[in-house]
Amino acid sequence: MSENNHEHMHEHSESELSAELAAKKAARPQIERNNTHWLTLEHYNNDPEFMKKAETEFQSSPLRESESEGGWARREFLKLMGASLAMSAAGCIRRPVQKIVPYNKQPEEVTLGVANYYASTYFDGNEGLGVLVKTREGRPIKIEGNPKFPMNKGGLSVRAQSSILSLYDPERLQGPKHNIFNEKRSNKDTVSIKWDGLDDKVVAQLKKGGAVVLTGNVASPSTRAVISDFAQAFKADHVSWEPLANEEIREGQRASYGEAVVPQYRFDKAKMIVSIDADFLGTWLNPTTFGAQFAAGRRDPKKLSKLVSFDSTYSLTGGNADIRVKIKPSQQLDVVMGLINVLVVNKNLSAYANNEKFKDSLVSYANTAQKLGIEPALFTKVATDLWENKGQSLVVAGGLQTLTSRSAELQIAVNFLNSLLENEGKTVDGKNGNPGLKASYAELEKLIKEMNAGKVKTLIIHRVNPMYALPKEAGFAEALKKVDMVVYTGDRIDETGEHATYLAPDNHPLETWGDAEFAKDIFAIQQPAIRPLYDTRSFQLSLMTWAYLANVGPKRLITFETFYDYLRNFWKEEIQPKAAKGKAFEDFWAEVLQNGYVGDLDHSTAARSFKSEAFAAIKPASNRSGFELALYPTVQHGDGSSANNSWQQELPDPVTKIVWDNYVCVSIATAEKYHLKQSTVVELKVGDKKVELPVHIQPGLHDDVLAVAVGYGRTRAGRVADGVGQNMFEFASFAGGPVFAGQEASFTKTTKKYNLASVAGNNSMEGRMIVAEATLKDYMKNEHAGVHRHKTWSIWSGHQYNGHKWGMSVDLNTCTGCSACMTACQSENNISVVGKTYVLQGREMHWMRVDRYYVGNPADALAVFQPVMCQHCDNAPCETVCPVLATVHSDEGLNEMVYNRCVGTRYCANNCPYKVRRFNWFNYAKLIEKPMHMALNPDVTVRPRGVMEKCSFCVQRIKEAKNKAKLEDRKLKDGDVKTACQIACPTQAIIFGDLNDPESQVAKIFKDEPRSYALLEEWHAAPSVRYLSKIRNNDKETPAAEKGGH
Amino acid sequence: MHRVFRTFAAVGLLALSLAGCKFQPGWGYNQGYAPEQPLPFSHEIHVTKNQMQCQYCHNQVERSKHSSIPALSTCMNCHLQVKTDSPFIQKLREAYDKGGSIEWVRVHMLPDHVQFNHSAHIAKGVNCQTCHGEVEKMAKITQVQDLSMGWCVNCHRQPENKAPLNCTTCHH
Questions:
Q1: What are the phi and psi torsion angles at A730 (to 5°)?
Q2: What confidence tens digit (pLDDT) does each residue in B17-57 have?
Q3: How far is A114 from chain B (nearest CA, A)?
Q4: Whose CA is closest to A963, among B64, B127, B68?
Q5: Does B103 sit within 8 Å of A95, measured CB to CB?
Q6: What is the mean pLDDT of residues A12-32?
Q7: CB-based contacts of A522, cutoff 8 Å, min separation 6
Q8: B112, A91: Cβ pair inside 8 Å?
Q9: What is the ipTM of this complex?
């Protein structure tokens, strides 16, 4: 062979050589590719450009950048070069002098270098979570879930974790301000004032009467008490409004059962769940708690629950569905009524089966399956599955996506169906919901009328931003001009703050005392973890101060000097008698501070009876054609109130994987029909409202839906959020109740193009299958279904692990793709934000990513989510190529990355089959502005430019736990070490531990779990991470020909 | 052309800047560093003469990665009575009464990418003197060891110490 080669070398022409090269290439072992799961449409279509991009390890290189594009980068480089020259000139002088400034008096609870955790709560207007605030040397550095809290049970949401950044936001107001307006209130001058001055002015004004307090949902019982005391003192009104109000649910409950409540939904008790556009795993009510409850039914595939989602946007809930049916907003009611029709008319079930009049009212809904374009058998199966799980099923609809003009009917229909299925009182608990969810658009509308009538003299606005989140047609801006004095407690001069006479900035939730009641009789405490950074004052204390200065109101309002005293007294008098009768208050209080809460989610509850007359409100089905608008909140931003947060902005949307923008989602067929490409700009029109937005082609979307996220398009939020995307709250119609979905919409194509930064495909496995999935039927026959096993052999002799050997397992069946782990990792490991420009170049820094794969026919694609972090391979390909030994193997199985050795060759990233290594192209850390640096974790090195970084299995946590065990003179036990992603995961899909400890949870999974598999097993990198295959409960069986994925 | 010139200039500058330094082992380390402190605190007087335990002042060293400098209140435990006529003690007292502090100059410094844990070493029975020298005889704190990586690893490599030698032992 070699002889032949020699000859060839001399004799053959170039063209023959290349032909031979091609032949050799063809003879190479083929990479097993499988295109059943795909990341993007380009991937699905094997688009040559995409495939080329996927093959290149680094999408961009400084050398390839043109001068104009890389101008900033080069300038920065030269500047840094100058700095390093200056430093080397001073090289022989000693290092810069550092000072140590000891405490004056050592605080008893502070040990330098050891973290303290404070139990507290987080509330974003809808979702309530029990949290632990991790503080170091007296400053909060991370927010974790409170594992004892009966609702989220240790899991946490993206926004709750990101809220640490908002504490250190450099653009927060640092003290009270006064806006001096001209006569027309069109121009102003902002000046700083003292609290005393503000108080005098406000009190004088309050004495004139006509005061209104406008707040969001108030989950805090003691704050509710302060507000009602204050209202009593000044004869003021209290109005609750929230952009994501749950009014439709409350009104539906009132019509159906007589009481306007938001029920407590129990997904943990439901075996069959049908969601009609209620994104309960992403954005609806308590997604973290619901996620934890949902996972309870997904953990054991033998007792798998079933989730059917009728989805008008591609929501996270739709992405987790066993069966997902695309609908348009106007079909939501059809779905519920269709299900009722199948049960009562087709199957003659329930007491209504003999009620001819009732049956007649369903006639127009008889052909729902055809209308939805699905098999009637499938639709019937959904209905009968519900019936067979009577009392253990759950039908939910709600949220922005369901606020069509028929949302009231939809809610009544859903309540009827739940009552019919005997879920009422079991999976729908009407007695024990969050009593604080009172926000109402109707009340706000009334308030606007009163403002216009000049009845409102003073308006105090707390924790809501109506000037941003209300459409112009609501008339809030004009009404606001008729109010003599507007006091705003927001933390910045934002869209509403601009129009406020006085800004009385509230403390950040991490700086102030408070409490919460997220479900009836679960009382939680909110503890401050740091003294207020600036001259701010809590909203409650402001109200108390004003009442005190005017000397009006109930005694408790004007007696206490601080809100803390008020709160303690409130707990003593109101809460302790309910929650812990007979206990000494000090003991009770200490216990509450320790645990963070008191109470339990499980209460006895009784089924309420459905008022049959309510059903008469439901009118016959209507048919619509043409495009319908569907607005939806995102997992990252919710209502957009916390949008000035770079972690949130750079978190890829869990489904579309796009960062830093909102866009119009259109279906593939619509895109083809109108010749739209990804990133084409269209002008979207609803009535006379217009906006230009880029197009995102979304698989699995209904052809008539144009879906756009709200929460973007802030104008006065700060440098991070301003000008990112477009404000879609503007497109809500307001007359006669809020309508966010199902409005007639149209668009015109423009010639413009706007680049959307998507991370999907940035780390493509080039078609090598790394997700394993099977249907439940497959699984019941063969527990290894969907997992392709390989015989492997190695030329390496292998490592010896005599002590610990760390390993992780990730359950794809319980992972919902919520991406809380990514934010946890970012917070724990000081991961830089790079901005949209660099994400476009594939330079995002997240150490772990959550891949979203679409499965099946693009028009009806299902989704699978897979978190991928460094796999800590035993035969790590990265380790063998590092020329400077900057990435090496530890004797505990960790693949270590040594930043101070790394010279930035990037060979390791090139050789990593899982694409989990991230390169620091710039000194991103230098851009961290004060006081943002206070959020950095002091246990993790802040990486400079030019080094590679990646998941370390939270080695600092491993070390901390080991050290703690050593100091306590005991062995490390399973559960002592928890990684940041594991702690944050609401569904406990991630488990970490010692593989050398046969009793550890993770070792058992590695050994015994038939669903477990390693990524790219055939390459025998021998990863320390195992994934558990996804099992889909869809009554299907994979045909034998298609079996044998990976 | 322009670029070539710039490169030459940079190299030249670099060479110039290094010319004054000694290229020898220990270059860049702080061995022998003994800066002036705001108060002439003497370990010799406190430890040798008055027989105080290290942990009386450095009381968190057994549970923390830091062997922190004591709070002023710790000093005042004694110095409310002891040596109150000394101008230095008066300065200390003044800072204490005002709620202020003393800005000590840090002597033992490790680079930012090194994570050192005092408590782990104390638990293993390593003496303070192993790393810090004979502190009890120092009137003014001086850095005795070079605290270089080679020096750390030397000790970690001794089989009898059973110390871990992974990179992440110190770097993460």
A1: -60, -25
A2: 444 444 333 456 888 888 899 999 999 999 999 999 999 99
A3: 6
A4: B64
A5: no
A6: 66
A7: A150, A151, A597, A598, A599, A600, A601
A8: no
A9: 0.84
